[in-house]
Design brief:
Length: 527
């Protein structure tokens, strides 16, 4: 998409029709997984392994209520469709928990397929060749597809070759939308002295940069409020939402998440059975929050987004005779919503219980706040606290990185049993981490700690598991070489350091290490 130069203004338009959404979609298509590198688009709160485990529990509750048991070649799969799967980090955490031996052992037998979708072909190709996702593909529980939630195209599954179009399924469908609804079209409105007004926008991008952070931070918005009709939309239910806000006394500023409403409709038409959408986003459900809102504006937090009016989505679900799940209390960062439609008179007892247990009372927002508290004193935590944090977080990489230095210090006084416990914990951290960015691979500090505490077998397992990834960088090649050296595997160490030199022939550390390794090898031959 061509960015309009500075000084050239768009005319005022409804926000849902603004070209900023096209600009944003083009960015994600073009950047692929690079859009999710550190310090780019914020995403940790919706991609950590804690939230992945919580979602897995809730969606399992949905299938316990509405799923079909048994399996055969003719059985129709139960699909879990992730919208905007991005880097793949959330999906990996979900898959690791949902399809673990302990979970599948107690679950009624059904064919379940997780489908990672995105509008970026580059992301999809990244997932398809990723070694950490391959085991799930081989099991037949993971598939991939291009999906634009605002379009009407069928969903073509790339592995199975199956096509999912409206009305093709009879089994229940689960969908996941994290940081999706805030980034697709919304409309802005206000009610002023009983008059409904639309809040139009126009924008100007004051940079020629192709970097989304530069584009977003250099976008100026202007707003214009003009009276509009109550039957603003062709969709009658959307107009009913507008009418419900007009009945309220006093002035009101609100948005209508039209992209989110379209997403509900799009996903619910795929099956004749129930559809459950689990969404996490910046937003609010309680009406009192809506009543206190100032005039709505487009937020600029790495990308363009809008605080989601989940209250409107809840009312829309009521109009569709569905059930809306919400924690019902103030959230510090992430509002969660469960949307169940097409379920008729069937009860959702397991789903309701799981939503309360894993979202309302001990959910992703609570974990994120506890992590904030913990990181205020990462350097001061003792071993027991560090291990508790790692277990509670489901082996989260950020918890490990924050506590790594304190963990090293704690090892000096650790008992043999504590050292075995630490080795098992570090193996879990490494296993849960999805390699999708350019940060230092956690296997490097993990190996250093394991070798320092004499956990030889665990270190060898992690070396084998991450050998290919580490060998692709100078830093990783040196870490491999040093680890093999400490393990006494000198030929493997020499091969690894030579790989590092092939990437950077003048690297002084690699040269020095190679010289040391050759001396060790020669001494061994002459002994």
């Amino acid at each position: 998409m061509t960015i309009k130069p500075a000084g050239e203004n768009d005319s005022f338009t409804p926000l849902s029709q603004s070209l900023i959404w096209d600009l944003q979609r083009d960015y994600y298509r073009r950047m692929g997984v690079d859009a999710w590198q550190p310090n780019a688009v914020p995403n940790y709160v919706t991609t950590n392994p804690f939230i992945a485990r919580s979602y897995a529990q809730v969606i399992d509750g949905f299938f316990m209520d509405f799923g079909k048991t048994g399996s055969s070649r003719k059985a129709e799969p139960h699909y879990i469709i992730e919208l905007g799967a991005g880097s793949g980090r959330f999906a990996y955490g979900f898959l690791k928990h949902y399809f673990s031996e302990s979970e599948t052992a107690v679950r009624p037998k059904r064919e379940i397929v997780y489908v990672m979708t995105d509008i970026s072909e580059a992301n999809i190709e990244f997932w398809r060749i990723h070694p950490q996702l391959k085991p799930f593909v081989d099991q037949g529980v993971l598939d991939f597809a291009y999906l634009d939630v605002l379009g009407d195209h069928p969903i073509h599954l790339l592995n199975s070759g199956k096509k999912i179009a409206p009305g093709t399924l009879s089994t229940p469908v689960a969908a996941i939308a994290n940081y999706v609804i805030d980034s697709i079209p919304h409309d802005l409105f206000c009610i002023d002295s009983g008059q409904l007004k639309e809040r139009k926008i126009r924008y100007r991008v004051n940079t020629g940069s192709g970097d989304i952070d530069d584009i977003v931070s250099n976008t100026d918005f202007e707003y214009e409020e003009v009276p509009c009709r109550r039957d603003y939309y062709e969709n009658k239910n959307w107009n009913k939402l507008l009418a419900s806000y007009l009945k309220m006394r006093g002035n009101l500023n609100f948005s209508l998440p039209v992209g989110g409403l379209l997403t509900i409709d799009r996903m619910s038409t795929l099956t004749a059975g129930p559809m459950f959408l689990l969404a996490g986003d910046f937003g609010a459900t309680d009406l009192s929050v809506l009543l206190e809102m100032p005039p709505k504006k487009v937020a600029r937090n790495g990308t363009y987004s809008l605080h989601v009016n989940f209250h409107a989505m809840a009312k829309y679900v009521e109009l569709k005779r569905g059930t809306f799940f919400t924690p019902g209390h103030a959230k510090a960062s992430l509002e969660m919503a469960g949307i169940l439609v097409n379920h008729g008179r069937r009860k959702s007892k397991y789903l309701s219980y799981r939503f309360d247990a894993f979202i309302t009372n001990n959910g992703p927002d609570e974990f994120f706040m506890l992590k904030k508290i913990a990181e205020e004193n990462f350097v001061g935590h003792n071993l027991s606290r560090i291990l508790a944090l790692l277990r509670m977080s489901n082996w989260d990489i950020k918890i490990f990185r924050g506590c790594a230095n304190a963990l090293v210090r704690a090892m000096a006084k650790a008992s043999s049993f504590e050292r075995r416990t630490v080795a098992e914990a570090l193996a879990n951290v490494d296993d849960m981490h999805f390699r999708c960015d350019n940060t230092t691979d956690p296997a490097i500090p993990i190996l250093k700690i394991l070798l320092a505490i004499g956990a030889r077998e665990v270190a060898i397992d992690i070396l084998r598991r991450n050998h290919g990834k580490l060998a692709g960088s100078v830093e990783g090649g040196l870490a491999l070489a040093e680890s093999y050296r400490q393990l006494g595997l000198i030929p493997d160490a020499i091969i690894s350091v030579k790989w590092a030199l092939a990437l950077e022939s003048s690297n002084p550390d690699a040269k020095a290490l190679l010289e040391t390794l050759m001396q060790i090898q020669n001494q061994a031959k002459s002994a």
